[in-house]
Amino acid sequence: xxxxxxxxxxxxxxxxxxxxxxxxxxxxxxxxxxxxxxxxxxxxxxxxxxxxxxxxxxxxxxxxxxxxxxxxxxxxxxxxxxxxxxxxxxxxxxxxxxxxxxxxxxxxxxxxxxxxxxxxxxxxxxxxxxxxxxxxxxxxxxxxxxxxxxxxxxxxxxxxxxxxxxxxxxxxxxxxxxxxxxxxxxxxxxxxxxxxxxxxxxxxxxxxxxxxxxxxxxxxxxxxxxxxxxxxxxxxxxxxxxxxxxxxxxxxxxxxxxxxxxxxxxxxxxxxxxxxxxxxxxxxxxxxxxxxxxxxxxxxxxxxxxxxxxxxxxxxxxxxxxxxxxxxxxxxxxxxxxxxxxxxxxxxxxxxxxxxxxxxxxxxxxxxxxxxxxxxxxxxxxxxxxxxxxxxxxxxxxxxxxxxxxxxxxxxxxxxxxxxxxxxxxxxxxxxxxxxxxxxxxxxxxxxxxxxxxxxxxxxxxxxxxxxxxxxxxxxxxxxxxxxxxxxxxxxxxxxxxxxxxxxxxxxxxxxxxxxxxxxxxxxxxxxxxxxxxxxxxxxxxxxxxxxxxxxxxxxx
Length: 557
Description:
Blueprint: E1 2-6, E2 11-14, E3 30-35, E4 38-40, E5 50-56, H1 60-81, E6 86-93, E7 96-102, H2 109-125, E8 130-135, H3 136-145, H4 149-155, E9 162-168, E10 171-174, E11 190-194, E12 197-201, H5 218-234, H6 239-247, H7 251-274, E13 282-286, H8 293-306, E14 310-313, H9 344-355, E15 360-366, E16 371-379, E17 385-390, E18 408-414, E19 420-422, E20 425-426, H10 429-444, H11 449-466, E21 476-479, H12 485-497, H13 506-516, H14 534-537
Parallel strand pairs: 1-5, 13-17, 13-18, 14-17, 18-21
Antiparallel strand pairs: 1-2, 3-4, 3-5, 6-7, 7-12, 8-9, 9-10, 11-12, 15-16, 19-20
């Protein structure tokens, strides 16, 4: 017998080898568990004394398990329905994943209907999904059987001897785990035909277990699609292909091409602003954390000057209320993420004065003392000058309610990662931005990796509420992701992630490490000083000198 502690409940004794499923409360939507802090599937057998925490489907980890399990069943259904086709999960969109079936002919609506019917049949069968460990040779054989060249490419430079696979009936695959314990554990889903592919639509935390209303995101979709086509033209759609190119000595060439694409996109946006029939007086640059808005704004300003305009930056941070008037979050701490933390009345009053050609007394904000003050600085706006405002709330119409719409040009900036881990696993844009933020926090803000991870969930909640609802209102979208950036960030990020020891965060750090393990590192010497990536890794021409970390990080191997 072994002793198992379930949360705060009393310790229970169970037989060695008992699966976690036998301990799950019948009245809770448990989808996975944490065994001594490590996320595991419910079929995991208990072999020694341990503490178990149940993970419900609406938890971030639970949602990830549900989504990965849906992809597993989708891949299994595709193998049975279209044996020669190659199912690819391309990117996230409209509360789901955009997918394609790569086959010799054009995919039709009927194909999507057949695929969904097969998936629904698998769910109705409630077949068990079992996790096993497999050797490198076994995983290679599985990938060859499934015609998955992207996974085979990942294995080329891996020195691991043991891998996790999942099995259901006669289907096996090398997957990211854990998964649900059986196909019948999956909640509602649908496959929506969305030419040239389809969208795997699944529940959100708010709608679970039902599907949320389908809302199209055409602008975001087209940005993703454009960059994916560009990546395929270069022969780089996944990490395995990126690794081959870097190991083949073509890293510098890739950096130059990726940076040229950024430069071309920024120049095009500047040309569009300058060529409008009525010149906008404000450029509003919004987007989530660590999207690279600051560097983008400064590079855009350079291109606006090329077009004969004179940009004037205006910082939203200087319009914060004094700390004593800042709204409080759920923990009773000042919440600078909400729009109400900004003095909207003063901001709009001064915008109107500037547009009327008048001079304003420009405020400043002292973050150490938490108060706004005036130091005699003024600002006025000439006819050939244009305001540039960047921040997470920049696209919210309430921020600039006093300014007519035709005088505003709105740009949404985000790191829309176009590179996949392999055919059935996307690289989350949130993960990429978190890595950027971790490197920047450590270098410029004296924050430990643990502190970055602790704050990230709050940052993400703020983005869902205050940023993403306005992304489709933008006049232009700029993708700040760089196809090579994971290779440059890899070693730096892994050293920082290995220092995370805090309970509840270590598992998240290990999840990101498992993503980076298969990425071939690349030296950052080739990254240009004006690159958006420099905003996070250092040595940017647009940044000041870094601070010395308050708490030095001990690098673990």
